[in-house]
Amino acid sequence: SAVISQKPSRDICQRGTSLTIQCQVDSQVTMMFWYRQQPGQSLTLIATANQGSEATYESGFVIDKFPISRPNLTFSTLTVSNMSPEDSSIYLCSVGPDRNTEAFFGQGTRLTVV
Amino acid sequence: AQRVTQPEKLLSVFKGAPVELKCNYSYSGSPELFWYVQYSRQRLQLLLRHISRESIKGFTADLNKGETSFHLKKPFAQEEDSAMYYCALMGGTYKYIFGTGTRLKVLA
Q1: Which residue, among A21, A5, A17, has the nearest Cα to A104 in the 3D structure?
Q2: What is the pLDDT of residue B70?
């Protein structure tokens, strides 16, 4: 199993500012994933972060808006840039899955942009 | 298009009643299907996966490729089953596609 610490757990931010969310894993993992969950919606994958390479973004998400760092095998950050109220969501960090293990999730960051 | 559909946002049942949470999927290959659960104030966690074919907390789910469904069932609901349930599909790239979730409320 993997234990994921994600912070902050929540924040209220002014529009036009940026917020960096941190994700720390208690073991080394190859792939880390960042999801967004907008109110009443499903979890949507933003990007996959592999150590030593650029993050891979899903359709509809771009690096300028959601820059990701992956400096080592246990840590990643997601920045939500130039925020607008539409960015108000829960952001989740995840590790796994692969063919043999399940996915493990952080507790999420609840972001409100005012 | 790859998609997971959970038609019910909310399902309320009485304690002891059977439960069925519906999940249908659209995928061109052979996906792996999962159910994840989020209890109040807890993080999302795996409930079961179709490959393991096991029963967890009394829940079972059978993959029906003909109907492209993976419904979650439990014969007798308990109050502690109240939670948010997400059906998820994993294709060949280790990425999940989640349904919109069903909130299960088990009434005393």
Answers
A1: A5
A2: 95
φ, ψ for residue A86 (rounded to 5)? -65, -15
pLDDT of residue A11: 97
| Mean pLDDT, chain A, integer | 92
B9, B43, B86 ranked by CB distance to A106: nearest: B43
CA nearest to B27, candidates B95, B89, B88: B89
CB contact under 8 A, B90 and A107: no
Pairing assessment for the beta strands A10-13 and A109-113 based on DSSP bridges? parallel
Q: What is the number of other CB atoms lying within 10 angstroms of the CB of residue A98? A: 13
A-B contacts at Cβ under 8 angstroms:
42
Q: Which of A43, A97, A107 lies nearest to residue B94, judging by beta carbons?
A: A97
Query: CA-based angle A55:A57:A62, to the nearest 5?
Result: 105
CA distance A47 to chain B (A): 10
- Look at residue A56 in the predicted model and tell me its pLDDT: 93
- Looking at residue B46, its pLDDT comes to 92
On the question of pLDDT at A100 being above 80, the answer is no
